[in-house]
Write a structure and sequence with these properties.
Length: about 350
């Protein structure tokens, strides 16, 4: 079987880490008898430099012609918030999410056994382990609501960002969360701010309806401020967390940080039809771009998620994840996760070690 993958290397360390994920995919292909072909897609700050806009015409179509999309990272200080929207890499990211209908963003935060000491949490908390899946709504809410900026008669300029959610949008992300919980430890924690926001009250009522339908899944409501606290206090209590777009943006950074290894965490964004998009959750780290210093593991694990969710190749995905664990267990570290006294390896070498472990 041939699988066609759109590659969006993007900016900063993006090209460095995507290259390693491709190496690993090719090694998987050889071992298991699949072939992967790749189409390069230009998007992000590099596209602004090359053609003047971060999201060139035809980007979504090029991705839609493929079975899945692998993205490195986009963004950098060069294309900052002082630049017009069509030149900013973030604009491209939001546009591709919308154009591919990627409403469900899965961000697993797991504490890998070999890296317990890297967690900033208290030892006894880290010992309990972290294995949660944050399901973030990705194409609605305040990220996509109407924005405005206007002059007031007496208070200077005023700006607004509208947060809107429909029952349809809440139900489809809710279903994803409950289905995932069934494959995991059977618990959904829905995060909202129902003590203040009308969108959250609607969110909660839809989730309660689903909780009745999925009565085999344990369900709880968690207020977002309390959730932020619980993630540092006792993250082991969570299995699947489901929340709206902006809460999910914030909580996923927090959840990744407590695992102590933001360079290790993958993500998947999916809709009702292919292609889904896979990317590491970390940024483009322009300060270390092209220097063989970036950790490719999050991108390699994103490729593993692609094998699992888009291609239904779970033995292959397991093999990649086991290879990563084996390399970490053997003590190999990139600079970002190296304990004091450990000599780190570079991006290329880490990719090669994982291929060899496969
Ligand atoms: C993320 C990022 C993006 C977001 C930015 C770059 C627009 O922070 O994927 O979490 O806010 O969604
Ligand atoms: Mg974010």
């Amino acid at each position: 079987m041939n699988y066609k993958i759109a590659l969006i290397p993007g900016d900063g360390i993006g090209p460095d880490i995507v290259k390693q994920a491709v190496k690993v995919l090719n090694a998987v292909g050889e071992k298991f008898g699949h072939s992967f072909s790749y189409v390069d897609v230009l998007m992000g700050g590099c596209a602004t430099d090359a053609v003047g806009v971060s999201y060139p015409e035809g980007t979504a179509e090029a991705c839609k012609a493929c079975d899945a999309v692998l993205l490195g990272a986009v963004g950098g200080p060069k294309w900052g918030s002082d630049k017009p929207a069509q030149q900013r890499p973030e604009t491209a990211l939001l546009a591709i999410r919308k154009d591919l209908g990627l409403y469900a963003n899965l961000r697993p935060a797991t504490l890998r056994p070999a890296l317990k000491s890297a967690s900033p949490l208290k030892r006894e908390t880290a010992e309990k382990g972290i294995d949660l899946m944050l399901v973030r709504e990705l194409t609605g809410g305040i990220y996509f609501g109407k924005r405005d900026k206007y002059q007031t008669p007496d208070r200077g300029l005023e700006a607004t960002d509208l947060m809107a959610y429909s029952e349809m949008e809440i139900e489809r992300i809710g279903r994803r969360a409950f289905e995932l919980a069934r494959l995991r430890r059977g618990k959904v924690s829905s995060v909202d701010k129902a003590n203040v926001l009308e969108t959250s009250r609607l969110w909660r009522s839809v989730m309660h309806r689903l909780a009745e339908e999925y009565s085999d899944v344990v369900y709880e409501d968690v207020l977002v401020d309390n959730c932020a606290m619980q993630i540092v206090k006792d993250p082991g209590q969570f299995d699947v967390l489901v929340t709206e777009n902006m809460f999910g943006d914030i909580l996923s950074d927090e959840a990744s940080m407590v695992t102590g290894s933001i360079g290790l965490l993958p993500s998947a964004s999916m809709g009702d039809s292919a292609p889904a998009l896979y990317e590491p959750i970390h940024g483009s780290a322009p300060d270390i771009a092209g220097q063989d210093k970036a950790n490719p593991i999050a991108t390699i694990l994103s490729a593993a998620m692609m094998l699992r969710y888009s291609f239904h190749l779970s033995a292959e995905a397991d093999a990649v994840e086991r290879a990563v664990d084996a390399v970490l267990d053997a003590g190999w570290r990139t600079p970002d996760i190296a304990e004091p006294g450990v000599t780190p390896v570079g991006t290329e070498k880490m990719g090669a070690l994982i291929c060899a472990a496969l």
